[in-house]
Amino acid sequence: MPDGSPLVSIDNLRVEFRGEDGPIVGVEDVSFSIKPGETVCVVGESGSGKSVTSLSLMRLVEFGGGRIAGGKLEFARDSGVLDVADADPEIMQQIRGNEIGMIFQEPMTSLNPVFTVERQMTDGLRLHRGLSQSKARARALELLKQVRIPEPERRLKQYPHELSGGMRQRVVIAMAMACEPRLLIADEPTTALDVTIQAEILALIDRLKRETGMAVLFITHDMAVVAQMADRVVVMFRGNLVEEGPVEQIFTNPQQDYTKALLAAVPRLGEMRGKPAPEPMRLVGQSPVEADLKPARKPEPLLEVQNLTTRYPVKGGVFRRPVANVHAVEDVSFTINKGETLALVGESGCGKSSCGRSILRLTEPTSGKVLLDRTDIIAMNDRDLRRRGWRDMQMVFQDPFASLNPYMRLKDQVAEPLMNYGLASGSELKDRIATLFDHVELPRSFMTRFPHELSGGQRQRIAIARALAVNPKLIVADEAVSALDVSVQAQVLNLMMELQSEFGISFLFISHDMAVVERVSHRVGVMYLGRLVETGSRAQVFENPQHSYTRSLMSAVPVADPTRKTIRDDLNFRPIPSPVFPLGHEPGPSEYTEVAPGHLVLKDNKT
Amino acid sequence: MSYILNRILSMLLTLFLISAITFAVTNILPGDVAMMIMGTQSNPEALEGLRRSLGLNDPLLVQYWRWISGMLTGDWGTSLVFKEPIGPLILQKMTASAMIVVFSMTIALTCAVPLGVWAAMHPNKWQDTTASSAALLGVSLPDFFWGIMLILLFARWLGWLPSSGFVDPREDFLLAARHALLPSLALGLGLMAHLTRMTRATMTGILNQEFIRVARAKGLGERTVVWNYGLANAVGPVMTVAGLQVGYLFGSIIVIESLFNYTGMGWLTYQALLNRDIPLIQASVFVIAGVVMLANLIVDLLYVLVDPRIRLS
Which CATH number among 1.10.3720.10, 3.30.559.30, 3.30.930.10, 3.30.450.40 corresponds to the domain B91-312? Predict the structure, then answer.
């Protein structure tokens, strides 16, 4: 292969899927190429055809009911250029796992649960390289060392469920690297991972690329990851290529409106530096959202959480008795002022969701106090909680597909809280619902529709309208924008900020996304292992992080700026220890150092 | 280890509940053992005397204790109809039935698993439609229908196999097997239909999982992907359903054994019910429940071998 000639060149690719009424186009017309040793990121929102493109290159798309309907997919092999689009299935089997390796999104389900790691790592080597089991085993061990898995010998004998998510993704990467492929396709490889593990996996892929000289085709929806990983970027939208170019050019001088809109919708960590209050995002092609979110001069507390502790029993043994406790929330205290947003941020399992649920008593806390407008929520009996407590506090959940009833019309779902509380009936009810649809910027014609007729973002607006219906003082938004595409996420965030400035609602905003949190919050609490390790104003926590965990969390966040590379190979984050403790274990109280007025940092011997 | 202990303990508890329910229900039925023995026209005083000597006037709990301790120590009493000790009687009939239960399960599994996998490999294609329709046909028609069809085909028209009767396998195994074959087939067809549907559903789910895509992306052939990677994950669920079907089989043998005049456990239970042979009814129900639970316990224990995720918990 002569220098400079592409490893892969895709020409006018068109992919169709079988549909009930004729073929559905998955990819309409896409052309781009990948040179040896370069990383090409394909970025786009859901339904853009980015995954279909990568699956076509492996000819795996046909297993999902798809068909390459046109175009060429040329792959440069040692023996000459092959058009993958009409290669024999036998030749494709030789290429897969051998000349092209692939890793997928879900490390939890990417490995066969009933086979050992060794078996899954060696079968490809035995197939493509004809190695004996013992030689294949030696190579597998070498690969596990290369991806820096601790105790590699032990891992070979283990089953996938014995490994953490990050370790599984390392095994999957090692598997894909087994036969030294010349192209690695990574389809959203870090989307399901926590931010610190994401940083390590991104660094790993980048290092392997440099060490082996392979090319990487990296599929992602995350512009920040693109900025960190890409040499060149391909932007896709609805099955078509929108724009292509070197990463710096895409970020500094995008040509197409769609690319500009996409970039504008991405919150960038650090861009709120020096600003006194949350600000709606400026979205391309939309009039700017006005929202004055400056904190009140004399803030009034709305929600006071004091020493909140929630533990779940772990049941075991023959009689399913509690044998241990999960310490989900451990002595957490904070205050949310009227009209302000407090964000709880942390990685999975840190207790942020349990904390939100405990405040509404959807999960009964073990101890602690929750005061809403000076009314003790914990002391309420079930009847008072339903009649008064939940009228003032509402929740918006992460998954807009699961949190709406598929059999009910949207207007009935929004009407439900109003009827439950007897707040409106007859024509007044209709008017209130119509107004709520206006507030969340959905056309009134949607009122008679069913949830499946809406997109994810529209559904989340309905969930917000439902929460707004009873005029709550507080809305707990638990990862409410995490499942949405960036442009939709930005719109929903803007909507929340607009509603806050208009109605003075307070938000408890629970999220894993530091950049989003920086954008929307007045105050921030960082959670780790059930404890609040650091709390303060947005500026205090983001501009002057004090706790070591806050710092490592911040350093792991990829920044949507290709000139600021945060991906480094020397990352070595401490794995999060287990929050499970034996019965009767009483950890000490959370003790804080006040480094500045309102800026509290946990004294470290407690974590 | 705690998993196995857990299973065994819960099985013993269930068995105890079943024994209590069986005992209570058979005592609520009109008529009692004394009347069965002496006939409905007997002298009330003699009847009362027999009741007293059999302990039928004792409180129910005392009677239950006497019965259950007898069951556990091997004293199962005497059948009123057959005038034989119940223990050896049930053992003999159970052996006969075990043969058709094992045969029919073997037939069903060897056909259902490949058929179900084949259907799952070609979702919504003709292979799937064929297998699914055949399975639906099998599920919809009752076992005795297949029994009659099989008798007509293999016994009447082709004359290959005997249409009825039972031969003790210890005397002539080959002849015994020939007699067991048609009832086993009749049972196996319905069972196969259930298991095919189950295998298809399980495999369809598995083949859509990410690790199957990863296996394909490694370049493994479709045969390895499906029959090795896929099927290894389906063994557990299919086995569980097969275990549950053992209970269904013991329900079906009552009809099938009568149809084929095959003197096994189903036939025995039927005779006991027909003649209100209360001690035999109680013992039969208890034994059948025990065998069904034992089958499920074996499945649970085998699960430990096929699914590593259970070993730790």
Answer: 1.10.3720.10
